[in-house]
Amino acid sequence: MPDTTALFLDFDGTLVEIAPRPDAVRVDPDLVPTLERLRERLGGALAIVTGRPIEVIDDFLAPARFDVAGLHGVALRRGGVVLGAGAEGHPALRVKIPELEARLEGLEAVLIEDKGASVAVHWRLASERDAERAQAAVEAVAAELAGAYRLQLGKAVGEIVPATATKAAAIRTFLETQPYAGRRPVFLGDDRTDEIAFTSVNNDGGISIRVGAGETVARKRLGDPVAVRATLRAWAEGAPIDPDALADA
Q: Rounded to 10 degrees, what is the CA torsion of 206, 212, 216, 219?
């Protein structure tokens, strides 16, 4: 029932396959048209909820501009209006970036992704030893910022984010206003960073959908981004929007 659904979509590992480097993601040519058709069918109640900055999502999904919760909810764009502080609003984090870089010096396969209001350390391409060192470094810096910031671990990545920023909070913010208000939230994500949002959506009477394998609190599951795109395409083309019919997680 499209008039009662509010659809929230993670990006990496959900809409697109995870790449070795964040900038190496490939977007399926049919993804943007599918999302645009589906957004229209849902009366605008479709948003991307991601750890990426909003402007990076815009680059990947150009020329379309969707509602986006970026940086795990630090910044949120709804109806073209952006809310949330940029890098200038996070001086305590900014002064820790050089320390993090120093801890990771010499680890060429480890990537530091400075997002302004958060910072991520990626070790997907690193050796096991270097990956352990990278995780230890980001954990140490996060501990020094405890209280104002928290560490969010995902697939070969650790990210330091503002403590109050979660995808769950971002989804609930969307649900407070039209066209999302009064609708049933449906959230698709692939990583343990999405589990808090799965729990929140479950508690709010919505449907949580885990993409890929792994233990989860999500109620439903799709196998991979290919299956996600096929499902979204079917919904966009007029098939019943019935996430309850998906396989149980």
A: 30
